[in-house]
Every structure is written in C-alpha cells, then in structure tokens.
Amino acid sequence: MNIKYVFPTLVVLTLCLSTGGAMAYEHAAERPAVAASHPKDLMGGKKALAAHNAKTQKVPKSKLVDINSAKKPALKKLPGISDVEADKIIAGRPYASKTWLVTNKVIEPATYASIKDLLIAKQPFKTAAENVAFYDKLKKEKAAKP
User: Fold this and answer.
1) pLDDT for res 42
2) What's the total number of domains in the chain?
3) Whole-model pTM above 0.85?
C-alpha cells in the first residue's frame, strides 16, 4: 500500500469510529429517560400508576360547560368569569368552537387559557352546512326582535 494513502485512511477511520461511538452513547443515554418516564418504572407499584393516571386524566365530558347553551350561573362558576363576561358569552352565541371566545374578543386570552379544558361548544347538527343554516336562522330571529 502506498504511504500517502495510509495517513488519510487512518484519519477517516478514526473519525468514523469516534462519531459512531458518540452517537451510540447519545442513543444509550436517551433510553433510560424514555423508559423511566412512566411512573410505574420510576416509583414502582400500582399506587404510583393510579396517581399518574389521575393527574393526566382529562376532564370528563359531563363536567364540561357548553358555551352555546350554559346558563349564567354555570358560566360564573368558571374561574375568572365575572357577571360581565358571562353576559358577553351569552350575547355572542352561537359559537362554532370554544376558541371563538378569544377570536371574537369575548374574553381575554389569559382567562381562556385557564378555562379552555373546562369548555365545549356543542353543535346541534352533525354537518357544518346544517349548523350554518341553523345559526343563520337564529341570528335573523335575534335581529328581528326589538
């Protein structure tokens, strides 16, 4: 083998081996964190798993407040919602989604962030076209009232 090819070959081989070792080290370092992220692996036992599930469980649908049909007392029970804001929510109905509260500037974004997991905006029909027609009819009736 020619001497001028020996040194560059050794350099390339050394770089390949050191990079592969570093990548393997990083990959191995990530594995325990992923495996230990589950509470059963961290603390062990069914109690820890039950506690973790209780914390991460979402609010059941029965506890959600429908912004399209809830009465004022139910809206006032939400954290950060005053009489004025409850009246604004009721006056701005119907909402296609709960994010419309912020989009239409009914409530402040900070207030919405604190209550968004407690809200839902139920729709009367399954298709968007039926809902649009229904809401248009409601708006016309609302505008016709003196």
Assistant:
1) 52
2) 2
3) no
Closest CA to 90 of 106, 109, 110: 106
Encoding tokens for residue 25?
Answer: 């080290």
Query: What beta strand segments (E) does the chain contain?
Result: 65-66, 119-120
CA 34 to CA 14: how far, in whole Å?
31
Domain that residue 23 falls in: 3-56
Does one domain contain both 77 and 43?
no
- Across 1-5, 42-46, 66-70, least confident range: 42-46
Maximum CA pair distance of the chain?
100
For residues 57 and 42, give the distance between their C-alpha atoms in angstroms, rounded to a whole number: 19
pLDDT band at 33 (very low <50, low <70, confident <90, very high): very low
State yes or no: pLDDT of 35 exceeds 50: no
The CATH code of the domain that includes 92 is 1.10.150.320
Whether 74 and 27 share a structural domain? no
Q: Domain end: 11, 39, 56, which one?
A: 56
